[in-house]
Specification:
Radius of gyration: 41 Å
Structural class: alpha+beta
Mean pLDDT: 88
CATH class of the largest domain: Mainly Beta
InterPro entries: MATH/TRAF_dom (IPR002083), TNF_rcpt-assoc_TRAF_met (IPR012227), TRAF-like (IPR008974), TRAF1-6_MATH_dom (IPR049342), Znf_C3HC4_RING-type (IPR018957), Znf_RING (IPR001841), Znf_RING/FYVE/PHD (IPR013083), Znf_RING_CS (IPR017907)
CATH topology of the largest domain: Apoptosis, Tumor Necrosis Factor Receptor Associated Protein 2, Chain A
CATH superfamily of the largest domain: Apoptosis, Tumor Necrosis Factor Receptor Associated Protein 2, Chain A
Main location: cytoplasm
Subcellular location: Cytoplasm
Domain RING-type: 18-58
Strand content: 15-25%
Keywords: Cytoplasm, Metal-binding, Repeat, Zinc, Zinc-finger
Number of strands: 21
Low-confidence stretches: none
CATH architecture of the largest domain: Sandwich
């Protein structure tokens, strides 16, 4: 920025005036050896020249010998200035260093309406404007008492449940709220045409409400007969529906059991083929990341189990897309856990594993790939007696912003590789 364009209480000393922008020096620097001062910003275009010259004496100078003039800077900040709103009535004066702080509270400074109505006004009038003039102010509805935006009052009255209306059937009822009108139309108005109460039983008679009493009295026997037939038909239909629902429940339960068995067989088959290395494919990555950040999806995501070697230690991986602990909100976190396995009773315990976590680079040219790798060595692990929570790993494995780079997330899919090395082979 160029110099300070403010109103001083007295004439500005020429020693404090920038020779380029001709106003008070801002962040002054001094050229040596000539000693001339100018604003730091004003000097920058001159420094772009191969052989910069002082604009006052036209002498060449060495850019490396330009220094901030802190003493001059302090003197300028102590100069007395007037508020820029003096002509509007502000009587404030004070050191230049306080002008910006004053502008933030000056009663005569122009600000925008906090209710975003588009009006600009002096700060001292904001309260009055917000309470009595702003089209976005809240005002009570004269009928229901609810607070409504002033500019939307006409729309509110179209749906206000307490707005008075008259019966559309012209029965003479007036000053009905919309709530009472519904009750009036459904239960009271004698001029509204209504169906017979036995319409579900097959009676097709319709007439004004005041005629319905005579109809009910003269057709009682036929109504009861039709109602009896309806009840019997509905009972048969209900029995049929109950049988269908029971069959569907049994079929669904059988499907669930079959799917669980198939899924477990697939998981076990995949796990037993592992050799201490597991690659986890995470499709639909961006949606899963957004669900994790918003809390819609539980964390961590748990992988299928895998084994360190045939008939070896059973492992599973965990992924916190929104991070955990110190990585929460900015990183993704990964971890591994030893699970209860089928062969634990014949394996050596405790174990001393070394974990390696790798985010795989998906560039086509394998020579240019730059995988991201982290290592973690937990303390010795005893034989698990039950599946526990996921153990520690890399809490700040990869920044969420970095993982979205095209070479790591391709076709909205990422690949994570987990390696387990046992220091003491079984």
């Amino acid at each position: 920025m160029p110099g300070y364009e403010v109103k001083f209480t007295g004439p500005l000393d020429k020693a404090f005036e920038c020779p380029i922008c001709l106003i008070a020096l801002r962040d002054p620097v001094q050229i040596t050896p000539c000693g001339h001062r100018m604003c730091n910003t004003c000097l920058k275009p001159i420094l772009r020249n191969k052989r910069p010259r002082c604009p006052l004496d036209n002498l060449n100078f060495d850019p490396s010998k330009v220094f901030p003039d802190n003493g001059c800077h302090r003197q300028i900040l102590n100069l007395q200035v007037l508020c820029s709103n003096t002509e509007k009535g502000c009587e404030w004066s004070g050191p230049l260093s306080e002008i910006e702080r004053h502008q933030d509270v000056c009663s005569y400074a122009e600000v925008s309406c906090p209710k975003r109505c588009g009006v600009s006004l002096e700060r001292r009038r904001v309260s009055e404007h917000s309470s009595h003039e702003c089209i976005n102010r809240l005002t009570p509805c004269a009928h229901c008492g609810n607070q409504v935006v002033f500019n939307l009052m006409s729309l509110h009255l179209q749906t206000c449940s307490s707005f008075p209306v008259s019966c559309p059937a012209n029965c003479g009822a007036t000053n009905l709220t919309k709530e009472k009108l519904v009750v009036h139309m459904n239960n009271e108005c004698l001029l509204i045409e209504v169906p017979c109460k036995f319409v579900e039983a097959g009676c097709k008679f319709k007439a004004e409400r005041y005629k319905m009493k005579e109809h009910m009295s003269s057709n009682m026997e036929s109504h009861l007969s039709a109602l009896s037939d309806l009840v019997n038909a509905q009972k048969k239909q209900l029995d049929i529906q109950r049988e269908r629902i029971q069959l569907q429940k049994e079929h669904i339960q059988l499907q669930k059991e079959t799917m669980l068995l198939q899924k477990q067989e697939i998981i076990d088959a995949r796990g037993r083929t592992a050799n201490g290395e597991f690659i986890w494919r995470i499709p639909d990555f961006n949606r899963k990341l957004m669900d994790a950040k918003s809390g819609r999806a539980p964390e961590p995501m748990i992988s299928e189990p895998f084994y360190t070697h045939p008939h070896g230690y059973k492992m599973c991986a965990g992924l916190w897309l929104n991070g955990v602990g110190t990585g929460r909100g900015r990183y993704i976190s990964v971890g591994l856990q030893v699970q209860v396995g089928e062969y634990d009773s014949i394996l050596k315990w405790p174990i001393h594993p070394r974990y390696t976590f790798t985010l795989l680079d998906q560039r086509d040219d394998s020579k240019e790939r730059r995988d991201i790798t982290a290592h973690f060595e937990p303390q010795c692990i005893s034989r698990p007696r039950a599946d526990r929570q996921l153990g520690k790993g890399a809490r700040r494995f990869v920044l969420q912003d970095d993982i979205c780079a095209i070479n790591y997330c391709k076709h909205d899919t990422i690949f994570l590789k987990f390696n387990v090395i046992l220091k003491q082979p079984p």
